[in-house]
Design goal:
Elements lengths: L4 E6 L2 H9 L8 E4 L8 E4 L1 H4 L9 H7 L4 E3 L3 H16 L5 E5 L2 E5 L4 H4 L2 H16 L3 E6 L2 H8 L7 E3 L4 H8 L12 H9 L5 H6 L2 H8 L1 H11 L16 E11 L2 H22 L3 E10 L4 E12 L2 H14 L6 E9 L16 H22 L15
Parallel strand pairs: 2-4, 7-8
Antiparallel strand pairs: 1-6, 1-7, 2-3, 5-6, 9-12, 10-11, 10-12
Helix pairs in contact: 4-6, 11-12, 13-14
Length: about 400
Amino acid sequence: MGKTILHVDMDAFFASVEQLDHPEYAGKPVVVGSPRDKRGVVAAASYEARKYGIHSAMPSREAARRCPKAIFLPPNMARYKEVSEQVFAIFDKFTPYKEPVSIDEAFLDVTGALRILGTGPDIARQIKTAVKIETGLTASVGVAINKFLAKIASDLEKPDGLTIVPSEPDRIKEFLAPLEIGRIWGVGKVMRKKLELAGYFTIGQLQQASSERLMKILGEHSANHLAAMAIGEDTRKLKMDREQKSFSREYTFAEDCSDSEELERVLCSLVEDVGSQLRVAGKYGNTVQLKLRWQDFETITRQRRFSSPCCDDSSLRELVMAIFLDQEIIKPVRLIGFGVSNVVSKKPPEQVDLFDTGSKSKHKRETISRTVDDIRKKFGSDSISSAGTMTTDD
């Protein structure tokens, strides 16, 4: 089963935050960086400013010459970091597997969320909507089977874009063929100049190039790298350098839901997804949380703690269902969410006497949940439920 990777890139992030905080700047060319009359460079430019050819790293004086009416603002990094944390908190609701690339972009592996949240494009749309609602900003997303393709895709339809790369090898080659060679990861100014002097301007032309000729131009290592990238091959894994402190999943209904049985069904699916992510990460949770958003967007959260941390689906489900049954459904539900927080990497040793079967029961539950994980990995995510039976024909 292939991976589903998203690359989420905020649109003109610094400048967009300034336009958000200062509505009077909306629709106007905004440049974040050094003042127009000082030595220094542009850090970011709004899309209105980019129409004048202004881009990051351009001298501010040149930017002012190109667009005398541009609004120049000093960077407000504290504010940008604050919004960035909001955005990354949204990512956490969809997957714990993320690789931050910078303050305003990240790779997300959403493979494990497909069973609950839909296809890669479905999840991308949900993330874009959540970012817009919770921050007021837009993001562009690329959906693909690897990081290289997802990164290329996110940049093709900016701003507020969504580009889906096909997964079949022949269609991937067709997708890449018309693009400039400069879009390939690792092709800088020097390598690009060498390739263009040799007559290679598009990725499609590289696809037709012989390995022998590419080796003469670039050397064996670079030639092999380029040949693989030209047909969309990329084996790089996500580099997750931030420890996951909580795990959560949410589901937004297509139509507001008042059916308790349907709410329970979705909640149990969210529990299984979060539980699986906990076990894969080798974590144990101390606190579970139920989140409900009513049709009028009012949101409530309720949480309870375990007596000792756990990661098995049965314990997670029992505690959150106790919370759910205590909560009256007073309005139709727009969104339901489940989360686990205060996670630890190791369970503290349990002290029980010879006649206490609690420890054995918890160990058995965890073993069952891990067995279910193994079955899903082998036969597919829909093959079995921790509360149900096998659905595969094997």
